[in-house]
Amino acid sequence: MWNMKQLEYGALARRANQIKKELRQGVRRPYKEVIDVFQGDLHRAGMKPLTFVRQVLAACVYPPLINSSNLPLDVRQRAQEELGRCVGGSVGSYSAAPGIPEIIHSISEFIKRRDGGIPSHPENIYISPGSQWSISNILNVLVNREASPRTGVLIPVPCHNKTVLSITQLGAVAVPYYLSEEQGWALQVEELQRAHESAKGVCNPVALYVINPGNPAGYVQSQKSVLEVIRFAWEKRLFLLVDELYQDCVYGENCEFVSYKRALSEMGPPFSGTVELASFHSVSKGFSGECGLRAGYVELVNLDPAVMKHIHTLFSKDACSPVLGQIALNLMTDPPKPGDPSYLLYKQEIEQIRTVLVHSVKKVHEVVNSLPGFSCPPIEGGLFAFPRLHLTPKAIQKAKELGLQPDTFYCTRLLEEGGVFTGPGWEYGQKEGTYHIRYNTSRALFKVHH
Amino acid sequence: MWNMKQLEYGALARRANQIKKELRQGVRRPYKEVIDVFQGDLHRAGMKPLTFVRQVLAACVYPPLINSSNLPLDVRQRAQEELGRCVGGSVGSYSAAPGIPEIIHSISEFIKRRDGGIPSHPENIYISPGSQWSISNILNVLVNREASPRTGVLIPVPCHNKTVLSITQLGAVAVPYYLSEEQGWALQVEELQRAHESAKGVCNPVALYVINPGNPAGYVQSQKSVLEVIRFAWEKRLFLLVDELYQDCVYGENCEFVSYKRALSEMGPPFSGTVELASFHSVSKGFSGECGLRAGYVELVNLDPAVMKHIHTLFSKDACSPVLGQIALNLMTDPPKPGDPSYLLYKQEIEQIRTVLVHSVKKVHEVVNSLPGFSCPPIEGGLFAFPRLHLTPKAIQKAKELGLQPDTFYCTRLLEEGGVFTGPGWEYGQKEGTYHIRYNTSRALFKVHH
Ligand SMILES: Cc1ncc(COP(=O)(O)O)c(C=O)c1O
Ligand SMILES: Cc1ncc(COP(=O)(O)O)c(C=O)c1O
């Protein structure tokens, strides 16, 4: 029998894998399959990759395909173009450390279009093997390990947990600011103030980490909220780390993604020229969902040239990012255009993914709120639901007896009895005395659609 | 006119790019093309990628190719198998952080075969986005930034310069041990002793970095030499970091690659159970030459479980390595077998690359030694020549007047006047008063062969 006491961080995943294995070996359980809604991977959830992206990448990998009449003409031309940018015409050569220059240029053009014409400078953009890697590296630059008091970084609660891990591993202090669940997980400046005050005597806050749209809570910040945060960062001289990976995943009515870069620029002086900003994006999220290719980028704004030099060295020291991931980034930021042979299919696939995601989010929200003991504010963006569990005192007591966090106890039962693999709220942070679970909203519906 | 005084680290590369651009724009020079022998990239040097590797990767990227009768059957089967190991059947999903379990298992089998049956344990193997990344990460674990005196790492001179960069960036001290140029760049234990002694009062040496076969100097260590180094590491309680990326690139007569793992195992107690070892390998070097895919692995031996836990966390914090790189690692360590449809072509391509490399090395050695002012011991392995420049006092004087290192001055002239782009020896380290240049031995000949 599975000993519940053994459960800790990561143990749920191991247990889920064990159950999957047992099911394959014919062990009988009340379900035939484990539904894995723990991860945010779209391909894991059953989404098909975008045809255009995969065709171009395949032709780059195996250039004889460029001559194949089975592939659309624009795919073949694009592959040729991408290979022309690779040293020696091969995706097997190292590129320049910050990324292939033409691709960095194309990313800057994408940012400019997205931000209504506000310029973006290629020399401020670095490609990395996944955005998590650049988040870690920028944190590395911001954190002074020898400082006393220690360096502090303000983080939202709940928060994407890999970033919290990076902060604590660097010896810095993660200072929590709580998002307001009652207000649909809104980010409130008074709470930022409180968090900043709370750091006094504990650490020296130098940066503010924001996730917009959110993970695990599915909020989308309004323009007003973005402006407030920037003003706060300016007042307190905080470096803004903005994780904008889910910028394409916005579903809420009256919701719109507003980039920090644009908002900052439009604020004008003194803000626009002083607030230091790092904005992260990636091929992992949005509609390409190519987590396994490992490519993200960071755009840096208003950084001191000396710091930029240091960042350049850090981003160069392990050579370059995977070249195929870089090409995927280019395809994401410079997709087929109307009139191109691949355009219609591309558009159709994107629309279908969007439809599934919007539909999933609605459905999940409905179902969750109809269950006794659950509540969940509207999910406006991102890929996750983070509903609250209203556990009975008896369930909490039982969990404590087992030496478990109450939400871990709940997730374990959901896995053991229902075959559904979710994440317990404490892994992402939550207000004391509240309990949540996190799960990927898209999984169930992709499975139905294919 | 190009101002020679502006030259510093990286400036030669910028100048080479500028000249390339000018040549494209029609500027006349005594040469039509810049010959770039600075980098160690085989694809950049004109080597064609291995067909089998690229076909399998293409079919993994774009699975409809699995049904294409244009690809050999084993390629299609292999692609299917590799995709079966990917979560959700897509190279676009995250894998487990240390790597895809079946691929790690297959790497351990490869190591076992290579080492005459000595077991290799999958839980000691981690895949990373290039081996440079794991070298940096293991160094990160070994270096105590707060220690006084500072942490020391013994490094060969000349040395692969990215590793030196990592050491100094971590705040550690790189303690040089000089390879004996007179003895074909042999690694001598007396010199290790001297280097270790020299650290007294400066830093606390905790690790010894060895590159075998060498880069930039093309030596291959004998078994005797490997055993001596292990014994020295044991005596001084040094962690052995062994960079074995060029294990397939051995050309010298009577030369054989001996892995540190095997030598250590065969030494028996007390060595075999105590000396801590990290051995690095990569898809970048050897015959696949897939630098741009970014995949390497490290095998760890005799590490304390607490340290292994820490390493696990470090290797997990930025999610996984590029999945296509992982698959390429698997193809490198588990290539087509006799009887497989792709076997003959694969073998033929490998043989051809080997022939070109062996031929290049001989040629380069001959030519270099026939030039006045140059000398170079036999090149036994690796991808580089590191000949010595016997500069005249006048040339040295002239360089000094320009504020340049004498070898930089030479490389600059070689680039400006001859169109050949090489690296100055001081970037890799050299005995004071000696001057060298580094260059990739393979480039000229691949160009001729295609
Ligand atoms: C908010 C957030 N930031 C960063 C990442 C890292 O993504 P990647 O490293 O794949 O680009 C993720 C991945 O799930 C995420 O959800
Ligand atoms: C000796 C040595 N070690 C490590 C590396 C890093 O290789 P990669 O990170 O591509 O695996 C190189 C690359 O040139 C090298 O020459």
From TrEMBL, chains A, B:
<dbReference type="InterPro" id="IPR045088">
    <property type="entry name" value="ALAT1/2-like"/>
</dbReference>
<keyword id="KW-0663">Pyridoxal phosphate</keyword>
<feature type="domain" description="Aminotransferase class I/classII large">
    <location>
        <begin position="71"/>
        <end position="429"/>
    </location>
</feature>
<dbReference type="GO" id="GO:0042853">
    <property type="term" value="P:L-alanine catabolic process"/>
</dbReference>
<comment type="pathway">
    <text>Amino-acid degradation; L-alanine degradation via transaminase pathway; pyruvate from L-alanine: step 1/1.</text>
</comment>
<comment type="subunit">
    <text>Homodimer.</text>
</comment>
<dbReference type="GO" id="GO:0004021">
    <property type="term" value="F:L-alanine:2-oxoglutarate aminotransferase activity"/>
</dbReference>
<dbReference type="Pfam" id="PF00155">
    <property type="entry name" value="Aminotran_1_2"/>
</dbReference>
<dbReference type="InterPro" id="IPR015421">
    <property type="entry name" value="PyrdxlP-dep_Trfase_major"/>
</dbReference>
<dbReference type="GO" id="GO:0030170">
    <property type="term" value="F:pyridoxal phosphate binding"/>
</dbReference>
<protein>
    <recommendedName>
        <fullName>alanine transaminase</fullName>
        <ecNumber>2.6.1.2</ecNumber>
    </recommendedName>
</protein>
<dbReference type="InterPro" id="IPR015422">
    <property type="entry name" value="PyrdxlP-dep_Trfase_small"/>
</dbReference>
<dbReference type="InterPro" id="IPR015424">
    <property type="entry name" value="PyrdxlP-dep_Trfase"/>
</dbReference>
<keyword id="KW-0032">Aminotransferase</keyword>
<comment type="similarity">
    <text>Belongs to the class-I pyridoxal-phosphate-dependent aminotransferase family. Alanine aminotransferase subfamily.</text>
</comment>
<keyword id="KW-0808">Transferase</keyword>
<dbReference type="InterPro" id="IPR004839">
    <property type="entry name" value="Aminotransferase_I/II_large"/>
</dbReference>
